[in-house]
Amino acid sequence: MPWGHVISTDTVPYTILSEIDPILGESYPVPAKQRTEVGGDLANRFEWRYFLRRLQSNKGKSSKAVAQIGRKLRVNGENLLTLEYDRDTSTVAIFMDDKVELLNVTYDRMARPVRWGPRSGIFADVELDYDRFNRLTSWRWGQLNETYGFDRAGRLHEIRYGDGSSLAYSFRDMFTSLPLKRFAGSQTVPADTPAALNRATIKKSDVNSEISSPKLIHILSERKAELEMCLLSVPVKSKHVFMFAGLL
């Protein structure tokens, strides 16, 4: 690399697997240190330190059973973050400076995150639900929430928002993956042509306006293959109306 720029990475055996078999732990190494040198001088040092906490027996002695698995992030010799996974509660606690807990993440039996709980009390918890096919069906964050519906072919066909509005898709047959039409309230819009986004009726609280924008058509047609969902903010009568336009 130019200017004598060198990046080196060290690994260590997988901690929890090493408890079962040392050879197995060495077969699955994990990153431990990364050093960045410029011109022979150390510019940055990044490292993970892994640890285990065992269950305490009634006599105060540590047993072989592992209660917590964790790792510490150190940058240039300073502890920044610590992650601890509790096997009994299936939660991951994230600490700053080994003292202040920032976030607690709860997982279900399928190792899917179902709850994100900030410990500051400033932000509300985020809760997620899944179906039997591991698809996200809803999420909630305070007063904000969205619910997703799927058809028999496993395609997303409906989105319901917390304010009572919804967005639905219809398909030509059971085999196509691109929707034929979009339904936003009482408005039906063909989903396979950019010109269909020339005019849309937005209904929310006291706003009921029609938006027409040739420039919007051009942008959407140019980026149709790149984006899946775009959030637009369009001023209407000195108010800002928000609209989700599906680029499919």
UniProtKB/TrEMBL annotation:
InterPro entries: TEN-like_YD-shell, Teneurin
UniProt entry keywords in alphabetical sequence: Disulfide bond, EGF-like domain, Repeat
One Pfam family per UniProt: TEN_YD-shell
BP term (GO), one: motor neuron axon guidance
UniProt name for this protein: Teneurin-like YD-shell domain-containing protein
Domain Teneurin-like YD-shell: from-to ranges: 3-173
TM helices/strands, residue ranges: none
Organism per entry: Pieris brassicae
